Amino acid sequence: MLTVLLAIGMLVLLSLVFGAILGYANVRFHVEGDPIVDQIDALLPQTQCGQCGHPGCRPYAEAIANGEAINHCPPGGQSTIQALADLLDVEAVPLDGDHGTETAKRVAVIREDECIGCTKCIQACPVDAILGAAKQMHTVIADECTGCDLCVEPCPVDCIDMVEVGVTAKTWSWDKPQGIAATSLNIIATDRQAEVVH
Amino acid sequence: MQMVILATIPGIVVQTWLFGWGTLINLMIACITALLSEAAILAIRRRAVGFFLKDYSALLTAVLLGVALPPVVPWWVTVTAVAFAIIFAKQLYGGLGNNPFNPAMVGYAIVLVSFPVPMSQWLGVQSMISAGETLSFLQSLQAIFHHLPVIDSYTMATPLDGFKHKDLLDTQTAFSSIAALQVPSLNGWLWVNLAYLVGGLALIWLRIITWHTPAALLGALLVMSGVFHLIDPTDTATPFFHLTTGAAMFGAFFIATDPVSSCTSNRGKLIYGAGIGILIYIIRSWGGYPDGVAFGVLLMNFAAPLIDYYTQPRTYGHKKAKSGLKVGEDN
Amino acid sequence: MQTASIFSFHGGIHPAENKAQSLQLPLGRPSLPSELILPLGQHIGQSSRPLVKVGDSVLKGDAIAINNGFLSSFLHAPTSGTVSAIEERLIAHPSGLSDLCIILTPDGKDTWTTLEPLNNWQDISKTDVLAYLSEMGIIGMGGAGFPTQVKLQGAHKNPLTHFIINAAECEPYITADDMLIREKTLELVLGIEILQHLVEAENVVIGIEDNKPTAIAALKTVLTQRNSNIQVAVVPTKYPSGGEKQLIQLLTGKEVPSGQYPADIGILCQNVGTCVAVHDAIKLGRPLISRFTTLTGDALNASQNVEVLLGTPISHLLDYADANPNALHRLIMGGPMMGYTIDSPLVPIVKTSNCILAASKKELPTPAPEQACIRCGMCEQACPASLLPQQLLWFSKSQEFEKAEHHNLFDCIECGACSYVCPSSIPLVQYYRHTKSSIREAREANVKSDLAKQRFEARKARQDAEAAEKEAKRLARQKAAPSKTTDAKKATPAKAAPAVAEPASDDSKKLKVDIAIGKSKLKKLQKQLLEAQEKEHVEDINSLQLQVSDQEKTVASLEAQLANVAQAAPAAEATPAPANDELKKAKIDVALIGVKLKKLQKQLDESPDDQELKDKVAGFEADLKAAQAILATLGASAPVASAPKAAANDDLKKLKIDAAIAKAAVKKVEKALKKAEEINAPEIDAIRQQLQDAQQRADELEKALANPEAATQTAETTTAKAESVADSANADAAKKRKIDLAIAKAGIKKAEKNIQLLKDQGKDESEINASEWPKKLIEAQEKLATLESEQPTPATAKTETKAVPAEAQAAADMDLATQIKKEKIAVALAKAQINKLNKRLENSPEDTNSIRQEIDAAEKRLQSAEALLEKLIHSQTNMQENR
């Protein structure tokens, strides 16, 4: 009987001691991390397109922090979903098709001779990337355009096109090789007949 | 891989000469099992079966296991070992290149732990050399597929086994009294090890493997056995004994050098090899098994990624090498 | 001449050299091709800007493109001829993409332009020499194409210990530099001496691999002859000893720190080709228009080195080297290690093209399929940068960019040694290139998304501030309204005040919601229609089409209503039209005449007897008066004149918008027609009809737009919107009203002025009250109030939605105005009383106390009246602003 009591007593004592140590460590070594919303927001593409159903990227980041699905962001696509999954330690799911599909990077271009200067697109642009004044022709600052599509709908004369950003020799980059069991013509150094026999 | 397989030929020849057809039959069983299980798993994983079979990796695993198992071990032991090695130790980890452990040694360890009796049935070398008696091909087949009791008269402990069970005898007495530690037996195993040494040196010469791992392994084994033999010559065997019996050379040149599960940088290979050498000596001397290559290699497989992290070479243009797991702290 | 000590570098490989083939024949000089293709981006940095236009004729050596910024270069005509085009052509690039090129058609004469060598290069400033080199279009000819003057400028940062001439040419097959050294040994040495003059390094070393004995011997001979202190360092043949960083390590034992340039550790590297080009430019005045290129490979029967004009198409060179088209398997620009496959032989030679490798199938077989990495570590042994290629491959495959960077991916020089030794045939370098560019893209995307975030947040802050301001105003208004009800005696009209803005906004809100609902219905219907069209359900299509058009009509009418509501408020406000040009002119005239007059009067003051001056002054005074009169009439007519103008403008704008909408509709219908045609739907005819209708409407609108006079009419008939009539009617009424208002306001002002005048004259308050002015003031104010209340009444004729808020507003306006008037009078009365009392206080000091009390009471009354007045005025302005 005494042994049992002793054992229980020891365990209680131990738990108290370790609890105290843990509690102290928690206070002493508390890490002031980025709030999770900021971290999520940093991963989102900041197109502010609202395709996720939120008015901007930050509100969606807040919604994700509160448990919304991470696959509602078509501009970010699968890579953003993967990054969010890594950050939040959840499973990476495919993009939710209800919110749109992942497209190549695009910018808005105004067909300027058709523009009537209604300023509707200027009001719609979430990043102030459209320049113009009432009754003056408008134009898009291509570098600032996030390709969010929000200006297309309000245009009364349908003069805004979403144009895919083409690849030039300067912006071109190498493709990823297709992986195991695939032949890549671009392999370098194939003239190794001199050392074929190992 | 083909070259590694070819480099085992001297060892296989010597083993066949010493232990009879059993070794070759084992090899056949192992190879067939390996190819079948590899093909089956690839088919299940929907991979290009033909393409991956041609990389010889399954065959190499089979060959290594075939020569490592005792010559007259029952067929189901070989099949179990090989199938386990291919299916569990390799394919379930993602196939070639993704397995953290040496598949052959995983298979070997599994059967060693599961079936200790057949795994200790090595044939005696002595009787074959002195009496010219050896198992015929048919006898070997029978021994492997219908465990013949007659075999027991041929089986005999390996030198390492013998030395392990010397119990309270001192070294000198053991070498004079225990059959497995007599000169013919020792010479037989010396031949086996020499054959693998030749194959291994060929691999180094052909630049299939680097010298780092074998040298470190054998060096560590030499140093360990040497130091302990100097301390207590009456209870320990000589370094020469350790280097020329069991799977010392085979392990050093063919098992520990498996690139997938070992370290990659040169410094890492040295540490990795030395670790195996030390573990082999520890297991042989104080462990429960007579030989320690399989467990030594597997234990160091665990440590390989860690060693890799801490032995990154210094990149050109950088003051010092990066090490450790810290990501994001540049320079 | 001395020999330098040699160090070594990690890794490296020994591929088959294959250099002998192209050294069998002497240096060749191909004939002029039929056209030269000169890409504008032959160097690292900004593409050059063309200096010529299509049709220009140029002489050999004329500059045809100028540098575009700091990191850029010039481009020169390689021969005389005509610029036949400036267009996109395929260029030698791994992507196989096109870029802008100047196309030159040679005239065959090959006439040089006037050459002006820089003979005094030792005397003029180094900056000038560098600028001259830039104008000669000289860039690094080793591979990257870094503009030479930029590199030389960078070398001035630190004192140089080593100036290294890269003659290693470590890549298999290529012998262009070897041949260049043999052919132009003296030019090379002279070029090095010029560069040494420019950079002043302690040691000048030529690094050359030991597989070029002829070139080494030639160099040594010339250097001994010239008793030069340039050293020749013969390095063992090992790929990639010609890499800049590797050669530096070989010759100096130093490593270029990661992320820095050789200049940072006092070392400069130049390719032999660049040195010869520098010599040609300075000593001969020749710009960079040709280069040595190796033509080699089993598919060529006459492998050799050629001195070739830039822009020569590779097909021309293949013909020259007697290519066997059947044997040609792959065409590679550059060497087998770092070169890239080009898809078309039409691409031109550029300043950095050192080799054309026309390989047969046997020579460069299609690589074996990629196998799994078994971490054999061969790549690690071969890597000259001491990287862990197998780890980098792992991270590249799994897209773990952070880890790849941590493993120093960006220190990879893409030499291909790892790919070469890989037993699993893994295209390692391609993985690294892909990962590098992915990381760069990710960085750029990060920068961009940060920017977008900033802009978005700035915009949000701005909008929030605007909203907050509006909210504050609204609150102030709400506060003002109830305070009035408590104070004012007539509560009934005051109640309407807070309701003024609300009905309008409520209405518009409701309408907006309706529109949104309508639109969503429309969308749904359109979707159904589309589906039906896809499934070819004829009946469904017809009914759906009807529904869609109905819904469209509803939405349109709702939108029109919304527009009316939105317009109602501003319409009620008579904003004064801006002064027109004439008015301005008149004002300027008046001012001018006034200034002149003043001057003359001054003169007159100084010499008062001058009759001439007096006459002039009199004349100017008359002018001034006339001008003022004009100004006055103009001022009166200006608002009147501008009002119809504005109305016309509005009409025009509306027309334009209508036209644009009609055009868009035409387009939409056209699209639908196309689709219908595609699926061969039965409603094609209907759609065609629609298209015609829409087209017609658009045409009519277009016509109307062209003829502004008919604008109103056409707009009426075509758009079937009755607004325009009302608008024009309203415009007239508004005009009249505005004039009345102006008159009334002027009356008030006049009365106030007169009252003030009387006050200034020291008249007693009672006297002022006795005069006619206060009465007039009140009269005028009343008139103004009635006018202002009348003002929106015409709007009631328009639509009912408008009338409600307008009336309410009018009531509120009247109420406010009368209240203000009353309070003003109260204030005036209180002030007068105080004045009176004060006077009494002065006159009769005996009953000070009682008078004082009276004064206090009056002052209190005054204060409360003033406070109330202020509030009322404030709320009035608010209301006006919010309309």
Automatic annotation (TrEMBL), chain A:
InterPro entries: 4Fe-4S_dom, 4Fe4S_Fe-S-bd, 4Fe4S_Fe_S_CS, Elect_transpt_cplx_RnfB/RsxB, RnfB/RsxB_Proteobac, RnfB_subfamily. Its main location: membrane. It is an enzyme of class 7 (translocase). This is Ion-translocating oxidoreductase complex subunit B. It comes from Marinomonas pontica. Part of a membrane-bound complex that couples electron transfer with translocation of ions across the membrane. Residues 106-135, 136-165 form the 4Fe-4S ferredoxin-type domain. [4Fe-4S] cluster 3 binds at residues 125, 145, 148, 151. Binds 3 [4Fe-4S] clusters. The keyword Magnesium does not apply. Its EC number is 7.-.-.-.
